[in-house]
Amino acid sequence: MKGIVLAGGSGTRLAPSTNGVNKHLLNVYDKPMIYYPLSVLMLGGIRDIMIISTPEEIPRFQEMLGDGSAFGLTLHYKGQSDPNGIPEAFVLAEDFIGYDDVTLILGDNIFYGQGFTTLFRRALANHRNATIFGIRVKDPERFGVVEFDENQKVVSLEEKPEDPKSDFAAAGLYIYDYRAVQIAKKLSYSSRGETEITDLNKEYLKGNQLDVQLLGRGFAWMDAGTHESLFEASEFVKITQQRQGFKIACLEEIAYYMGYLSKNALYKKGEGMKKTDYGQYLMEIANRKHTEQYWETIDKNPILELVQNE
């Protein structure tokens, strides 16, 4: 399974903050926005990841994340000159995807909820052709709406309908087989001047090959693409972290519990940022004396800690 983080676009909804920087490099509370989608792919066990952004911003992502080895990942970068729609990501990543399945997540989307990792990994394991994620929203007319049957097979998809057939929106997380590349190439441009991810999903739906994984009560899905939503996301992360004592989307912590990063390497990472709460947190994780006992509280499976807190 390959992973793609789509972190392009002009970020006009966040101007003037994005006049000189890509929005995905802005902070959501105590870490860059790009950390949040990357953490989702990591928790799913996806390590071979391509970040797609504007050509001028690629060097900034490379400076921040490098080749990914610091997090146990292999990162690739690809420039997207114009924001021609989400499906274009598959065309740009054609050589990278090859004949593998691929998971794409939008770079400004944040997912949180107890059991999310288990749910996401189950979706990856059971994936056949195409899987999207649906979450209940109070204003479905603002989103792409998913109608589904009792077996979670998609019945219909509508983009911002006046009379929604369900109150479940399609979140910015998608799993496809390699055919997504060829399907994306054949899509026509919409009235917005872009290819639409809904149209790609409809092609799978025509063949009865589109499943939906529902995110139920207790899950939070945020799109940090406006000043208001960015502030709300930051407040959510701040309050949740302060009350639970765990950090959301801490890439180094995830890498450590996944076995990609040694305790010594984790400590040195934290030591390099020891004047910050983030660095002190990494040092505290590395200094835990009773890691085995700690893991026992989460069914002796270290990744389940992250399931409960991501």
| Unreliable sequence segments | 292-310
| Total number of distinct structural domains | 2
Structural class: alpha/beta
Helical content (DSSP H or I, runs of 4+): 25-40%
Q: Name the beta content range.
A: 15-25%
CATH superfamily of the largest domain: Spore Coat Polysaccharide Biosynthesis Protein SpsA, Chain A
Ends distance:
21 Å
Strands ordered across the widest β-sheet: 5-4-1-6-11-8-12
Shape: globular
Assembly of the depicted chains: single chain
The SSE order reads EEEHEHEHHEEHEEEEHHEEHHHHHH
> Mind describing the biggest β-sheet?
7 strands, mixed
Identify the CATH class of the largest domain.
Answer: Alpha Beta
Q: Over the alpha carbons, how many angstroms does the gyration radius reach? A: 19 Å
Q: Please state the second-level CATH architecture of the largest domain.
A: Alpha-Beta Complex
Q: Please give the number of β-strands.
A: 13
What fold name goes in the CATH topology slot of the largest domain?
Answer: Spore Coat Polysaccharide Biosynthesis Protein SpsA, Chain A
Q: What's the average pLDDT?
A: 88
Question: What is the fold's blueprint, element by element?
Answer:
Elements: E1 2-6, E2 27-28, E3 31-32, H1 35-43, E4 48-53, H2 58-65, E5 74-79, H3 88-92, H4 94-97, E6 102-106, E7 109-112, H5 116-126, E8 130-136, E9 144-148, E10 154-159, E11 168-176, H6 180-185, H7 197-206, E12 210-215, E13 220-223, H8 227-244, H9 251-257, H10 263-271, H11 277-286, H12 291-296, H13 303-309
Parallel strand pairs: 1-4, 1-6, 4-5, 8-12
Antiparallel strand pairs: 2-3, 6-11, 7-13, 8-11, 9-10
Helix pairs in contact: 10-11
